[in-house]
Each structure stands twice: as structure tokens, then as C-alpha cells.
């Protein structure tokens, strides 16, 4: 029988190598995951879901096309068809016109219409009359604007042209160096020229035919603040996020001019995140099923490795999300950039859910975990995207890339990497940590979340070599956390924001440098002696230093030019050799010292670790403050 | 030649030692029993052999491969104590999935699955597993363990919680597998099952192997066969106790006395004495200790030690051992079940 088995079974190693075997097993698990998941839903449910989706789609499309229609025929207006205002009432969705002869007045100020128009005189009746009157005034304005915009001779329609130029704030001046913040206003033509780059002929001047003054501070729309702010000091450019789609040509009265706010693009970009919140529920459940019902035991005993199992179980959800993202992108007019920006978000959603499902002890805890992930990641991606046209901080969210894509703006590779790198990196680290506890001894154990989190980290600690490696691997998480701190405290007054950022940024880094060392000691993967603690501290500090240099990618998008960016990531690299050495190498000394402090505490137990960690954080924060005062 | 060799296998969870220095070997085609009380380290040992739990120390070689090696996984069938099936799948679909995972070609897998399910008399193959009985689920789980046609099978409590009919069927099936040349590592609480199917056993207690060998060897080593010689001596219308010293067999309606001796020489000695006194031997019976009695003797005093062990077990160790469970209630229930089985 054994011989028969040997003949019949195929060996992937013989067929096409180990990699092929890995891919085959992963694909098999993925295929069966799809088939198994499909088995959980009966046909009736599928039909109901399809019907709901179709309904939502149709309604959504109708809303997108025509608006919600809440104000359709909201008011009744009595007006004759011969009246020139009849067309206004007829075209407005809010008004239902009736002939003036049908107007019936009753006691007091009541009537069967809210407003009535006789020639140029207008009267309003009843409780809604006043609101109807105001709405009719707005309808008249809108009607006039539409008529003017349809005019062939726009110069005649709009004899005055105003070019708007949105510029970045000069942060040094905002910071209080000289208190002058009005350069863009054009009070000083020379200054204005400096700040706005190649400030050239004003469109207004051209159109007015004046042509004798090119120093009024306005530009023709091509020059942006970013262009020249980089040229001024030799630093790399702040991304060109202040211009683009929001500055497209539009006509209207001055009252219709509003600051750049990519409302429509933002809403459409949000659509990319919505399905992720639902998919992680199903994904979390399938991972949890393997644990709670011990079903994963049988997969673990099979020839498939843990990573193949996890990859196979994750792939259908990742591919499904990718397909949804492509579909949304096609529907809303996005391009490949939108897809490429949305995929790392999906990957991080799945990765964090995977870790959460590996740590949760019950479906109740899993619900808490997935809701937390939904809220946190949705906020993390959406809120910065609101500021897409305002500040480079927005680029911490890949959703900003989608907004830019929808607005037709170009995105450079550095911007893409800056925006998505932490997402890719964090997703990889999360999967790595989750895989660490994807084994029998941890999967089915009933431990508290912190204890399992320590297990997950400790699973990756194996000897000295792993210590600096883990410190470096945590960099994406550190980067993401620090960016979040910056984003959250961006709008807070600097007097409060800066100290908070100093401490929080330092705490995040110290945690990344010490948590695995603590986990190693706590789970007896490292010998808890002073010597080992010092060695681990040194290695962790050096590893983190190397990884941290990656965060200088931030400079490619100009984040350190912001005060809060400096507080989080340190000052930009200087051209001065001494300054360069100070900024570049003193952090290594700092990281080593603080990592040793925390590691020594970690070797003595949880309380000592807490004390060591706090001490290291305070030393680190003090260093940050000192360096910025000295260098910046 | 041993198909499975275990040398000084050890597993610790923090300060708790679940398995301490287990060493044994299993021959090809043998049914090898692992018995012991709850928390003895049986399941941990089996899981280390299956590659599910990483040993702290020691080595295990299964079919020439170490646990965790994918090639070893292909040659091993593992049946855990519970039957964690994908209940939304059908029996056929479930088995095809695992056959696929074990690289079994589809046509071979279909044929093998059909034959195995026929042998196991499994009906309702296209019904979802969530809708079949516990016995059926167990049979599907056994079929899954066989889907890769393994050389070595590890059955951890294969008949746990099943009705007597299904239990007997599974015991018989295990014996058939052995006859076909499969090596089966068999763990059970019901010692009657172990005694009836296993060629050799190890008895574990507190993580250590405390007895090993064929059931008869262990029986000999722990009391062996006892001979009960029943004699009566005429005493003028009545009976009297022979001079050799014996217990009155009060349960018998005829007054007679029972002599317990360890061997035939002892029997002969009693016979000579009784005859010298004018009496006669009325019956000779042999009494062999059951495995259960040996087990109780070997694990004697284990109640106290187990209690101490359980106090020292943290959550992970208890769960990883597979015999603890999340609550004390589960543990107590398990113990009660064992006690009931022992009484049976």
C-alpha cells in the first residue's frame, strides 16, 4: 500500500522545485478557502445580497447623477408662464410652479402657495414663505450664473477676471521669526517675487490690457509655492499638492470662490476604504475559526507551512479587495495610481486584522479588534486626505494619492513610496508577528491580549542577530505611528503640540527598540543577565539607527520643513559637515544609550522594564529638544 | 526496524515540565499504546511526534524524517482528540481538500476516498458535515487521517465520546490498519480498548514513562498471574481451615478456603499440604490483573501529584497539552468521564 502511495503521489519538489511547491500549496489553500467560504452562504443569501448591492448601486448612481432630491418640489410658487421669472421657478428643483390664477388666499397669511410673483413683485405666505422667498432668491442667482456661463462671449459675461493663487505658508515666518506673513498678498513686489517663484504676468493684467505691471504678486497659474521654496534653500521639493485640479478655471461671482477643498474627490476616495471595513470582518472570522474550533490544527500537521496556510487564507480576501478597488477605480474615473494606492491600505487592513484575530481569545474580542481597526485605519487614511491640497502631511495617507489621482494631478515615485511605504512595511511586520504565533502552542492558548502580543514578538526573537533586525523591522510601524502623531497634533497650537510630539515620538521609538528585547527576556529566549541586556541594548540601538535613516525619506516630500515634522523626525540634513555629523551620527549614540537603559530594565522584569522605558523616553525626548535647539 | 524513534523527548512550558525524557521506539506495523492519566503528557508527546509542538529537548524521527519536515507530514496521519472539521463542507469535499493539500492526484484521491468511506460505512457523503452525527464526524476525521495513505498514524483518543457501537468499529478498524502494515500510535483513556488493540504500550505519569512493554510483560512486572487454590478439609461432619493458612471463601455456599499463590510451585505446595491434612483441592482459579489495575498501581498516589501539577500549570501548558481545557469545570468533567469509563 505504501508503495502504491509513493507511485501515485506527486512530489512538488521533483516537479518543479520548492518555490513551485509553495505556490501550489498556497494556491490550493486559497482555492479551498474560497470554496469553503462560499459554502457558508446559501443561495437565498446570495440573491438577497446581490439584490441589495444592485439597489444600492442604482440608488447611488441616481444620487450621484441627480442628487438626493430631498428638496424636489419643496415649495409652491404662483407665477404666470409669461412672467420672466417663470423659467427660474420651472428650472429650480425646489419649486413647483402653479398659475397665478390658482392662488387661493385664506385667513391671515395662509395660501396654497409659499410665494407668489406678480410681474416684479414677490410675496410670501405661511410658515415656509420666508424660507421659500430666500430659496427663490438663490434660484435666481443660480439661474443668472448659468445663463452667463452659457454666453459665447465670456469677457462680456464676466468683465472682471480674478486669478487666484494658493500658496504654502512661509512656516519660518509663521513660527514668529519676523512676524510677516503677508508676502503672498503682494504688498512688497520684490518679496512676492521671491516667494512665488517666477511670478509673471497677471492674467488679470493681460485681460485688462494694462500690461505694464508684472509685479503684482499674481501669477499665471503655473508657478506654485513648492516650485520655489525648494529652489530657495537647496532642499528637496515639497510636493506640488497645492495646485492642480482645485485651481481649474471657473467662472462666477466672487461669493462662489472657495478655498481648495477636494470634496468630491475625497468622497470618491472614501469609497475605496468602505469595502475594506466589511471584508476584514469575514477575514477575521475565518482566521478565528481556525483557532477557536481548533480547525487549524489539521492544516498545521499537513505538509503546508504556516506561511503557506496564512498566505492561502489571505490571498482570496486580498485579491477580492483588489478587484473591488479596480472596479471602484473604473467607476469613479480613477487610474492605476488609485489602485496602487488602495492596495497597500487593503493589505494593512488585512494584516492588522490577522494579528488581531491571532491575539483575540473569542469572537467578542475579535469584534472589538476589527471595529478598532476599522475606526483607526479609516481615520488614519481619511483625515489626512482632507488636507490633500493644503499640506504635505496629507501624504501620510495613500488616500491622498487617490484624491490627487482623481483630481488629475501627477504623483512622483518618492511621494508614492513615502505614502505607501509605511503601509506596505507595517502590513509585512504585522503578518510576520501574526505568523510567529500561528503554531499549535500559541494558537489555541487562552492568554490575555498583552501576553499573546508578547508571545508574538518573542516568537521572532532568536539570539542576538534577531535583536537589531527586529528593531529595524519595526521602523515602518514607528514611522506610521509618528506620522499619526504629527497628523493628530498638526492643528493643535504648537505650544501644546511640540512637547507632546517630543515625548510621544520618543516613546514610540523607545518601544520599538525595547519591546522585543523585553519579550525575549520574558519568554526566556534571552538570558536575563546584565551582560546580555547591555549587548541587546547596543544591538537594538544600532539596528534601529540603521532603520531610522530610512525615515529620512520624509525629506523627499519636505515634511521636516514643517515645525511639527521637525519635532517628530528631527531636523533636515545639513550641508555643513559638522552639522551633518551631529545630525546623522549622534542619534546612534542616543539610540544605543536609551536602548541599553530599557534593555537593562527589561531583563529585570515588567516593573523594571516600565521604569527603564520611561527613563529612556525622557532621555530621548530631552535629546530631541536639545538637538533641535542647537541645530535647528 | 523501528519506523518511529523517540529519544529523550522533553517539553517544558516556562517552569512546567509536560514531558520529561521520553524514549521509546515503535516497529513498523505495530499498534503502540500511550496511556496515562490526564496531564500525564500523552497528548503533548503525540503532538511533538506530529510536528505540532516543538520539543524543548530530545529528538524524534518518524519514517526517517524529523517532525516538521513536510516529507514527514506526507507520511503521517494525525487524528486529534477532537474532530475539528470544516462543517460547512461536505464529507467528500473536505476529504478532497486534504488530499489536495497532501499532493495526492485527484483521480487517486477520489478512489482512495471512496474506498475509505466504504470501509468506514460512511453515509451522507454529500451532506454538510455540520449536519451529520458525532460518530459520522469521527469517521470522516479518520478518513482524513488516511487520505494521504500514511505509514504512521497517530490516533489520540479515537473513540472519545462515541457510542459503544462506533467505538468498537473504530477499534476493529485500527486493528485492520495494523494488519495492513500501518503503524498506529494509539492513545485512549479506556484501557480495555488499549489492551485489546495495542501490541505494546507505555504508561505515562507526570510527564514520565513509568512502565513500558507488551501488555503481558507489564502485567508480569506488576503482579502477573495470581493462582487461587480453593481447598476443603473434612473435620467430622464439617470443614476446617487447612494448616497452610488461607482466607475463608465466604461467598461460596460450600465452606472452603482460598489460598493465593504466585506460581504453579505454590499451587503444588498447597495441594501437598491440604492432602496431608486429609483435605482436597476443590478448585484452582487464575486471576490476571487488568491493565486498569496496573495503571492504578503505577499511577498510585497520582491524585495528589496531579493536583499539584494542575496548580502549577499555566493556561498555555494546560491547553497545549490538550487535556486541560479552559476551565476547571472542563477538567472536572473530563475526570468524571474517565471515572465512569473505569467503572464500566
From TrEMBL, chain A:
Recite the UniProt keywords alphabetically: Membrane, Transmembrane, Transmembrane helix
Q: Where is this region: Disordered?
A: 174-256
Q: Which domain of life is it from?
A: Archaea
Q: Any stretches that span the bilayer, and where are they?
A: 45-64, 266-285, 315-333, 339-359, 366-396, 416-438, 469-490, 496-521, 528-547, 580-602, 608-631
**Ranges of Acidic residues composition bias in the record:** 174-194, 203-219
Write out the biased-composition intervals (Low complexity).
246-255
Q: Does the keyword Translocase apply?
A: no
Would I find Ribosomal protein among this entry's keywords? no
Q: What is this protein called?
A: Sodium ABC transporter permease
Q: Which organism is it from?
A: Natronolimnohabitans innermongolicus JCM 12255
Automatic annotation (TrEMBL), chain B:
Q: Which InterPro entries match?
A: AAA+_ATPase, ABC_transporter-like_ATP-bd, ABC_transporter-like_CS, ABC_transporter_ATP-binding, DrrA1/2-like_C, P-loop_NTPase
**Stretches for region Disordered:** 299-344
- What CDD domains has UniProt attached to this entry? ABC_DR_subfamily_A (cd03230)
Query: Which SMART domains does the entry mention?
Result: AAA
Has the keyword Cytoplasm been applied to this entry?
no
- Chain ranges of the ABC transporter domain: 4-231
**Any single Pfam family the record assigns to this protein:** ABC_tran
Provide the alphabetized UniProt keywords: ATP-binding, Nucleotide-binding, Transport
Kindly list the GO molecular function terms attached to this UniProt entry.
ATP binding; ATP hydrolysis activity
Q: Where is the sequence biased in composition, kind Acidic residues?
A: 334-344
Q: Which family does it belong to?
A: Belongs to the ABC transporter superfamily.
Q: What is this protein called?
A: ABC transporter
Organism (species): Natronolimnohabitans innermongolicus JCM 12255
Amino acid at each position: 500500500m505504501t508503495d502504491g502511495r509513493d507511485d501515485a503521489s506527486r512530489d512538488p519538489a521533483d516537479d518543479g522545485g520548492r518555490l513551485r511547491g509553495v505556490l501550489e500549496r498556497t494556491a490550493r489553500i486559497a482555492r479551498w478557502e474560497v470554496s469553503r467560504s462560499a459554502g457558508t452562504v446559501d443561495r437565498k443569501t446570495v440573491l438577497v445580497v446581490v439584490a441589495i448591492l444592485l439597489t444600492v448601486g442604482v440608488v447611488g448612481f441616481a444620487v450621484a447623477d441627480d442628487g438626493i432630491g430631498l428638496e424636489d418640489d419643496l415649495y409652491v410658487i404662483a407665477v404666470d408662464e409669461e412672467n420672466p421669472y417663470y423659467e427660474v421657478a420651472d428650472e429650480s428643483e425646489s419649486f413647483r410652479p402653479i398659475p397665478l390664477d390658482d392662488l387661493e388666499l385664506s385667513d391671515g397669511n395662509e395660501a396654497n402657495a409659499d410665494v407668489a410673483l406678480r410681474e416684479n413683485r414677490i410675496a410670501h405666505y405661511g410658515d415656509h414663505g420666508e424660507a421659500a422667498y430666500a430659496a427663490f432668491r438663490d434660484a435666481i442667482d443660480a439661474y443668472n450664473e448659468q445663463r452667463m456661463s452659457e454666453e459665447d462671449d465670456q469677457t462680456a459675461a464676466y468683465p472682471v477676471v480674478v486669478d487666484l493663487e494658493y500658496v504654502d505658508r512661509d512656516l519660518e515666518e509663521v513660527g514668529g521669526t519676523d512676524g510677516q506673513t503677508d508676502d503672498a498678498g503682494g504688498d512688497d513686489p520684490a518679496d512676492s517675487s521671491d516667494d512665488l517663484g517666477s511670478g509673471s504676468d497677471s492674467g488679470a493684467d493681460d485681460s485688462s490690457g494694462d500690461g505694464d505691471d508684472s509685479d503684482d504678486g499674481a501669477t499665471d497659474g503655473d508657478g506654485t509655492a513648492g516650485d520655489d521654496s525648494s529652489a530657495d534653500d537647496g532642499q528637496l521639493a515639497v510636493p506640488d499638492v497645492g495646485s492642480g485640479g482645485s485651481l481649474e478655471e471657473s467662472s462666477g461671482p466672487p461669493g462662489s470662490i472657495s478655498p481648495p477643498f477636494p470634496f468630491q474627490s475625497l468622497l470618491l476616495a472614501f469609497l475605496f476604504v468602505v469595502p475594506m471595513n466589511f471584508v476584514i470582518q469575514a477575514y477575521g472570522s475565518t482566521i478565528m475559526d481556525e483557532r477557536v474550533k481548533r480547525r487549524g490544527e489539521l492544516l498545521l500537521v499537513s505538509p503546508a507551512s504556516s506561511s503557506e496556510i496564512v498566505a492561502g487564507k489571505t490571498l482570496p480576501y486580498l485579491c477580492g479587495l483588489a478587484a473591488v478597488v479596480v472596479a471602484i477605480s473604473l467607476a469613479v474615473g480613477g487610474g492605476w495610481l488609485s489602485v496602487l494606492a488602495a492596495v497597500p491600505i487593503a493589505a494593512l487592513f488585512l494584516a492588522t486584522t490577522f494579528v488581531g484575530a491571532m491575539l483575540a481569545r473569542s469572537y467578542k474580542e475579535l469584534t472589538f479588534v476589527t471595529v478598532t481597526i476599522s475606526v483607526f485605519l479609516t481615520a488614519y487614511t481619511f483625515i489626512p486626505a482632507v488636507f490633500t491640497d493644503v499640506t504635505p502631511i496629507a501624504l501620510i495617507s495613500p488616500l491622498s494619492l487617490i484624491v490627487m489621482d482623481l483630481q488629475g494631478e501627477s504623483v512622483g515615485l518618492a511621494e508614492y513610496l513615502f505614502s505607501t511605504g509605511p503601509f506596505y512595511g507595517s502590513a509585512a511586520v504585522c503578518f510576520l508577528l501574526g505568523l510567529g504565533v500561528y503554531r499549535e502552542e500559541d494558537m489555541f492558548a487562552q492568554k490575555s491580549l498583552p501576553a499573546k502580543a508578547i508571545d508574538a514578538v518573542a516568537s521572532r526573537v532568536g539570539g542576538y542577530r534577531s535583536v537589531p533586525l527586529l528593531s529595524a523591522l519595526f521602523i515602518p510601524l514607528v514611522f506610521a505611528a509618528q506620522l499619526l502623531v504629527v497628523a493628530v497634533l498638526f492643528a493643535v497650537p504648537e505650544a501644546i503640540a511640540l512637547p507632546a510630539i517630543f515625548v510621544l515620538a520618543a516613546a514610540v521609538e523607545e518601544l520599538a527598540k525595547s519591546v522585543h528585547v523585553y519579550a525575549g527576556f520574558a519568554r526566556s529566549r534571552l538570558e536575563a543577565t546584565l551582560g546580555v541586556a547591555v549587548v541587546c541594548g547596543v544591538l537594538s540601538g544600532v539596528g534601529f539607527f540603521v532603520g531610522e535613516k530610512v525615515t529620512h525619506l520624509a525629506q523627499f516630500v519636505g515634511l521636516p520643513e514643517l515645525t511639527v515634522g521637525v519635532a517628530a523626525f528631527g531636523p533636515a540634513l545639513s550641508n555643513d559637515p559638522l552639522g551633518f555629523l551631529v545630525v546623522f551620527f549622534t542619534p546612534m549614540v542616543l539610540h544605543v544609550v536609551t536602548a541599553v537603559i530599557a534593555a537593562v530594565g527589561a531583563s529585570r522584569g515588567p516593573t523594571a522594564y516600565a521604569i527603564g522605558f520611561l527613563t529612556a523616553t525622557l532621555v530621548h525626548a530631552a535629546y530631541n529638544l536639545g538637538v533641535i535647539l542647537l541645530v535647528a | 526496524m523501528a519506523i518511529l524513534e523517540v529519544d529523550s523527548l522533553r517539553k517544558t512550558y516556562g517552569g512546567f515540565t509536560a514531558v520529561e525524557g521520553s524514549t521509546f521506539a515503535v516497529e513498523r506495523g505495530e499498534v503502540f499504546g500511550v496511556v496515562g492519566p490526564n496531564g500525564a503528557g500523552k497528548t503533548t508527546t503525540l503532538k511533538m511526534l506530529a510536528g505540532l509542538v516543538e520539543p524543548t529537548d530530545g529528538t524524534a524521527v518518524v519514517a526517517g524524517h524529523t517532525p516538521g519536515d513536510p516529507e514527514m507530514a506526507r507520511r503521517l496521519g494525525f487524528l486529534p482528540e477532537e474532530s475539528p472539521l470544516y462543517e460547512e463542507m461536505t464529507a467528500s469535499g473536505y476529504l478532497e481538500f486534504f488530499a489536495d493539500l497532501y499532493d495526492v492526484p485527484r483521480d487517486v484521491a477520489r478512489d482512495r476516498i471512496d474506498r475509505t468511506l466504504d470501509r468506514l460505512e460512511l453515509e451522507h457523503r454529500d451532506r454538510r458535515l455540520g449536519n451529520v452525527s458525532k460518530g459520522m464526524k469521527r469517521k470522516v476525521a479518520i478518513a482524513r487521517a488516511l487520505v494521504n495513505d500514511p505509514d504512521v498514524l497517530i490516533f489520540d483518543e479515537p473513540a472519545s465520546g462515541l457510542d459503544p457501537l462506533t467505538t468498537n468499529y473504530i477499534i476493529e478498524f485500527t486493528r485492520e490498519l495494523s494488519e495492513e502494515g500501518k503503524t498506529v500510535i494509539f492513545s485512549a483513556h479506556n484501557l480495555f480498548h488499549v489492551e485489546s488493540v495495542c501490541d505494546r504500550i507505555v504508561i505515562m505519569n507526570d510527564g514520565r514513562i513509568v512502565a513500558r512493554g507488551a501488555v503481558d510483560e507489564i502485567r508480569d512486572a506488576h503482579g502477573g498471574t495470581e493462582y487461587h487454590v480453593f481447598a476443603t478439609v473434612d473435620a467430622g461432619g464439617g470443614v476446617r481451615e487447612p494448616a497452610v493458612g488461607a482466607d475463608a471463601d465466604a461467598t461460596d455456599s460450600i465452606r472452603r478456603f482460598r489460598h493465593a499463590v504466585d506460581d504453579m510451585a505454590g499451587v503444588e505446595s498447597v495441594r501437598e499440604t491440604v492432602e496431608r491434612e486429609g483435605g482436597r483441592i476443590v478448585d484452582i482459579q487464575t486471576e490476571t490483573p487488568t491493565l486498569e489495575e496496573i495503571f492504578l498501581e503505577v499511577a498510585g498516589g497520582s491524585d495528589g501529584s496531579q493536583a499539584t501539577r494542575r496548580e502549577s500549570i499555566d493556561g498555555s501548558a494546560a491547553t497545549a497539552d490538550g487535556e486541560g481545557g479552559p476551565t476547571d469545570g472542563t477538567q472536572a468533567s473530563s475526570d468524571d468521564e474517565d471515572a465512569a469509563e473505569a467503572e464500566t
